[in-house]
Design goal:
736 residues, elongated, 7-stranded mixed beta sheet, 26 strands, 6 domains
């Protein structure tokens, strides 16, 4: 066997989890395919196949034969195409739903209040026919596709119940004497068939709205990589090349403000690089000869030359993209339960209808045909899956709306189902537990000079370093001084002349390199501030250190209480951070966290979560940065801070708009209540069928002579839907 290829193909027309399972089966059984996995969540098929045996075109043809679509151009354009197709389908579904509701209203009003007016049946026929066979055509085509493959789903039940109710109504309208001659009024059920279609379309629209689009996260990650790169030629000249042409060994130039294109090692230059998309830490990292740089990070004010090491699919950014792409997807949403049961429920209902007809035919030779036909139609009408179709989306809509009122954005039913099972919450540090913005926490003065605050602020105003900006923000009310001979000393700090005197502001190396003695008192205070998770800025002149400034990213005021509440709920809390051990320990202590891991890279965050999952834990990952995106995707539940990156928000299952950790326990309680409502809805929908179907079949007739009228069956069907919606709306009254 030749070497196999693994590829992701976008798949279209997936209406439910059962559809994803069908496509997976079709691909898995295709000759030359080693394995196939279809993600309903992001509508993609991951296929490993032998290119010498089958081609993407053949796989596409097999999927299309099964009634679905597949895009085989596996690049950025295919993601655009999938987004466009999904958007067009959603807009079309919205229009069909609106029309179905509007056209069903005259049928319902006529059937309930004006049945005796002239041409009432004809009016209902004219309005219901386009609803059933035009606006609801997807159910009939879906049922036909399932029949071709000897299967059944919700479409089958909808098509049978509405189709037979409509046919029976047309027959009664055209040939009323058949029933009148036998002493039976010829009822029509146009309103039942039209309302069923309208309700089910509304349910699917709500589900589609709740699901959300996952491919945009991948697009944004891809957007972090430049399209073109400047390389340095052997003669020192520069040449711009497309990113695809960059190979390991080439020398690449990163100008100030540019994104670094590929992973490499610095060969020339000094600069600070914003690596927050990898580490999550807001402070830029110094880069000089021999230090690694990574694709997607942003170069600061200096110019760097570096030797390309990892390019294309081998860069750290590309690996993060793949991890997000592989980890995203469906995690068995509650609605999948409905589709599984429907696959058994549909054939059972059809069999019950046929058996009811036959029993009546055999048991009562005189009136058996009439009663049997009525019983069969009544069974199919009363067994309509309207309540089943609405059970999940109505509860989801109310639960998600309730969450939105509290600043908790829940993506879909998958997140609602998973949240109550969480027993471990993993928290990123920066921007999640902490504010994500450095602030001055303490200033220790060792020598008093006139206007020292204003002089320090004047120096830092000439810097774009986050620590300098924190100092400027702290001294925002002081006067400005003119600075001459200003110099930004890379990797160390600043120096400049103010009123004829040279001042320094920077790290310890800057002070020591200029021959300034740091006293034991200053060193002790610096050590104390460092142990409390502070970065230190020394302010000095030639005579010695004037002051040191402690700057840190403070823990949010609500974080300790939120952590405590999670612990009360029996949930273990872990902090992961790319920061050093000392800082991690200090922050964990302030946040009431006993378990933490420091100096963690993005792929190590994902690996840590996978380890917890292998140990049987249900893990929620809480983060705000691009560096958290892979971990957010691979966790059982991803929770993003609303103040974080768009990519983290897109990948996450839940977004906390205010970035307040106290909302996480609220989200879990809300999810528990919503899932409980969904299960109640499904329970009553099935109980209704279990009781209603036997009665419709005539099981009470031998006991007390009761035979359910199809009109009453239609009313019972409507009541079941109303009860489900009402139960869902009760969520609005609850406090979480």
């Amino acid at each position: 066997m030749s070497k196999t290829i693994k590829k992701n193909f976008p798949v279209t027309d997936l209406a439910c989890a059962a559809c994803a399972a069908r496509v997976e089966k079709v691909l898995g059984e295709h000759k030359g395919v080693c394995s196939a996995s279809v993600n309903f969540g992001n509508s993609t098929a991951n296929v490993e196949y032998d290119p010498s045996v089958c081609t993407p075109e053949q796989l596409k043809a097999a999927v299309e034969d099964a009634g679905y679509g597949m895009l085989i151009q596996n690049d950025e354009n295919s993601i655009d195409s999938l987004e466009q197709i999904q958007s067009e389908k959603y807009n079309a579904l919205k229009k069909r739903t609106a029309l179905a509701v509007l056209m069903s209203l005259p049928v319902v009003v006529t059937g309930m209040f004006f049945m005796n007016i002239p041409y009432a049946n004809l009016i209902m026929f004219l309005f219901s026919t386009p609803v059933v066979f035009w606006l609801g055509r997807q159910f009939f085509t879906g049922a036909w596709q399932q029949l071709r493959h000897k299967s059944a789903n919700m479409d089958t039940l909808v098509a049978l119940s509405t189709g037979i109710a409509w046919i029976f109504s047309v027959a009664n309208m055209l040939f009323p004497d058949f029933w009148l001659s036998r002493g039976i009024h010829p009822h029509v059920y146009f309103e039942a068939s039209a309302v069923i279609i309208a309700f089910i379309l509304l349910g699917r629209l709500l589900e589609s709205k709740a699901k959300g689009n996952t491919s945009s996260a991948i697009k944004k990650l891809m957007g972090l990589q430049p399209k073109t790169v400047t390389i340095v030629l052997g003669n020192g000249g520069l040449k711009e090349l497309p990113i695809e042409q960059i190979t390991p060994g080439l020398t690449v130039m990163a100008k100030p403000g540019e994104r670094i294109a590929v992973d490499g090692i610095v060969t020339e230059g000094n600069s600070y690089v914003d690596e927050s998309m990898l580490s999550g830490e807001p402070i830029p990292v110094e880069k000089k000869t021999g230090i690694n740089v990574y694709a997607g990070t942003i170069n600061g004010n200096g110019t760097l030359q570096f030797k390309a090491v990892n390019t294309g699919a081998d860069t750290l950014l590309a690996k993060i993209i793949r991890m997000v792409q592989d980890a995203q997807g469906s995690k068995a949403p509650v609605q999948q339960l409905v589709n599984k049961i429907a696959a058994i429920f549909v054939p059972v209902i059809i069999c019950v209808a046929i058996i009811s007809f036959l029993i009546w035919l055999i048991a009562d030779p005189n009136e058996g045909f009439i009663h049997g036909l009525l019983a069969a139609v009544t069974v199919l009408v009363i067994a309509c899956p309207c309540a089943l179709g609405l059970a999940t989306p109505t509860a989801i809509m109310v639960g998600i709306g309730k969450g939105a009122e509290s600043g908790i954005l829940i993506k879909d039913a998958e997140a609602l189902e998973t949240a109550p099972k969480i027993d471990t919450v993993v928290l990123d540090k920066t921007g999640t537990l902490t504010a994500g913005k450095p602030v001055v926490t303490e200033i220790s003065t060792f020598r008093h000079i006139s206007d020292s605050d204003a002089i320090l602020a004047a120096l830092e105003r000439r810097s774009d370093h986050p620590l300098g900006q924190a100092i400027v923000a702290h001294f925002h009310n002081v006067n400005d001084f003119k600075v001459s001979s200003f110099e930004n000393v890379t990797g160390k700090g600043l120096q400049g002349m103010i009123e004829g005197k040279l001042f320094y502001a920077g790290n310890r190396r800057l002070i020591e390199d200029n021959g300034i003695i740091i006293s034991p008192e200053v060193s002790a205070k610096a050590q104390e501030l460092t142990s409390l998770a502070n970065s230190i800025v020394y302010f000095a002149d030639k005579d010695g250190v004037i002051a040191i400034v402690g700057i840190s990213d403070p823990v949010k005021p609500t974080s300790p209480a939120a952590v405590g509440e999670l612990k009360k709920m029996g949930i273990e809390v872990v902090m992961l951070t790319g920061d050093n051990q000392t800082t991690a320990e200090a922050v964990a202590s302030k946040a009431n966290i006993t378990k933490y891991v420091a100096e963690v890279l993005p792929h190590e965050k994902s690996a840590y979560i996978e380890k917890l999952q292998k140990d049987g834990r249900k893990v929620a990952m809480v983060g705000d940065g691009i560096n958290d995106s892979a971990a957010l995707a691979i966790a059982d539940l991803g929770i993003a801070m609303g103040t974080g990156s768009d990519i983290a928000i897109d990948v996450a299952d839940i977004t906390i708009v205010s970035a307040d950790l106290a909302k996480i326990p609220t989200a879990i309680r809300l999810s528990k209540a919503t899932v409980r409502t969904i299960r109640q809805n499904l329970f009553w929908a099935f109980i209704y069928n279990l009781i209603g179907v036997p009665i419709a079949a005539g099981v009470l007739y031998p006991i007390n002579g009761f035979l359910l009228n199809p009109m009453i069956a239609g009313a019972a069907m409507a009541f079941s839907s109303v009860s489900v919606v009402t139960n869902s709306l009760l969520l609005k009254r609850k406090n979480f």
